[in-house]
Amino acid sequence: RPEENPRRTFIHNRGEWTQPTEPVEPAVLSILNPLPAGAPKNRLGFARWLVSRDNPLTARVVGNRAWATFFGRGIVKTQEDFGFQSSPPSHPQLLDWLAIRFMDDGWSFKKLHRLIVTSQTYRQSSSSTAAGEEKDPENILLWRGPRLRLDAEEVRDSALRSAGILSNIMLGPSVFPPQPASVTTEGMFGALSWNTSTGEDRYRRSLYT
């Protein structure tokens, strides 16, 4: 609809859409920073508010989730809860710095990830010591490098690289690596059409499977 004639939204009696009651104006949660004065009360206004420097919560959450991806634990342990009942950040200044750097870099996830994986903290050895385990068994203070479980795709890619046969070809259609017969013949909806790739496509990264 035109901006000057937006669709009205109502509170519905017992959730029944045929029983509208009070109208509801577009807004953000009252516990957060309000929309800027004069901002359009639509999805565009909400998007601008969400990534505004005056609303650093978004950048903090993104930075914390990125950190958790590489370290197995966020600076705030409760990634899904940044409220008053969440766990306090183990390194609050680091969290703020990551958020500011993320915004300064144009909200680039690639730059944020590069920043983390090239840091001395991430690149340190994951070797443990008795003294470290006694004082900080969960590695909250980051005295050693992270230890993370690999998912299935990472295990496959690591095995192919160790064998020296991992293909670095990029882009293109999906490939079909070898699968046990039971995977393609005993599916819920019957047999699947699975034409195993040949040549170099057989050893491409799992991203393309």
SSE blueprint and pairings:
Elements: E1 9-12, E2 20-24, H1 43-50, H2 57-71, H3 92-104, H4 109-117, H5 120-123, H6 130-135, H7 152-162, H8 181-185
Antiparallel strand pairs: 1-2
Describe the structure.
It contains 8 helices and 2 strands, in the order E-E-H-H-H-H-H-H-H-H. With 209 residues, the protein is mainly alpha-helical. It folds into 3 domains: 9-50, no CATH class; 57-123, no CATH class; 152-208, no CATH class. Strands 1-2 form a two-stranded antiparallel sheet. It is extended.
Characteristic key phrases:
single chain, 209 residues, mainly alpha, 3 domains, two-stranded antiparallel ribbon, 8 helices, 4% strand, extended
Helix amount: 25-40%
Mean pLDDT: 87
Secondary structure tally: strands: 2
Computed CA radius of gyration, to the nearest angstrom: 24 Å
TL;DR of this structure?
With 209 residues, the protein is mainly alpha-helical.
